Amino acid sequence: MSYTLNEAAKATGKSKTTIHRALKSGKISAVKRDNGAYAIEPAELHRVFPPVPAERNEERSKQNDVEHLHNDQGMLRIQLETIERERERERQQLQETISDLREDRDRWRQQATALLEDKRPRGFWKKLFSN
């Protein structure tokens, strides 16, 4: 079973660039497949670069996972803050709209009340016998 460039980098703890440079310089031999990917034999790879213990690969993987989580949390925190600012702006707009509608309602109520009140002057006898 041969390694790809990415698998070879993981197996040795080196970067893909380092493995690629070794291939180009002839330190490591590999077969280039039709799709352009390298097929690197493990014996040939580990002749130049010793294998990394599995624990170290797992540790590096866990460290990368933790870094990705921190990056994801940072992005989520920024998105949450943006959403909170937008919601606060919307809340303020709604409060202003509610306030404007209440003022309009009160003015309409006053106008309706004024129209319903009888503003005509009453005669002497009507004033005397009403209420």
UniProtKB/TrEMBL annotation:
Residues 52-73 are annotated as: Disordered. Keywords: Coiled coil, Plasmid. InterPro entries: DNA-bd_dom_put_sf, HTH_17. It comes from Sulfitobacter faviae. Residues 55-71 have a biased composition (Basic and acidic residues). This is Helix-turn-helix domain-containing protein. Pfam families: HTH_17. The keyword Flavoprotein does not apply. The lineage of its organism: Bacteria, Pseudomonadati, Pseudomonadota, Alphaproteobacteria, Rhodobacterales.
